[in-house]
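Notes from the 1:1 (GR / supervisor)

We went over the backlog. Supervisor wanted to see one worked example end to end before approving the batch request, so GR pasted a single chain during the call. The sequence is below; no edits were made to it. Supervisor asked that the structure be written out right there so they could see what the output format looks like.
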Amino acid sequence: MLDALRRHWALNRLRDARYRTLFEAREDEIVSVDCETTSLNVREAELLSIGAVRIRPAERRILTSDAFYLLVRPSQRPDDDNVRIHGLRPRDVEEGMAPQEAVERLLAFIGGRPLTGYYLEYDVAVLNKYVRPLAGCSLPNRQIEISGRYYDYKLRQNPDAYIDLKLQTLVDDLQVPALPRHDALNDAITAGMLYLALLRRGYG
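Structure output shown during the call:
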């Protein structure tokens, strides 16, 4: 119901017909998305890179051969702390794509597919800072939050337990391969594997 209301409200605000494909819902594929940014504060955060990969739930398959990855050029140079986290040096992102063009390409990759990710709400909030000026509305796509699905899965097993939602905990518990962290594409693929692992357990 919430997703339907979000889509209806967003469609009324759509001002560029090029992005109407976002409202052409399709459930045969899901897109796992991850963004590396300059800050964890949504208001301050600028994109550094975007990774995304499509998933076919019915086939239990991640389409890594058709993955999406772009470096993005921020208005401010990444500071030393940021470089240590993401490994993206100023000279790396200086050759990146302008954020508006990068987001346009991402929207074409996503279309009307649902989105999934680990703490997806943050990534969507950052992306919406760029989507709204382009389309006139926020992303209307259905959202599947990995940490929330995992919480439900563990709560069902033990209603009184403390549930650790750290990414490494999910990777270990759901027994998915560990990929190098803080790379947008690797993180998107990891989230996709976690989604499929939860799907096999009835929480996709």
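Supervisor's comment: The mean pLDDT is 90.
Batch request approved.
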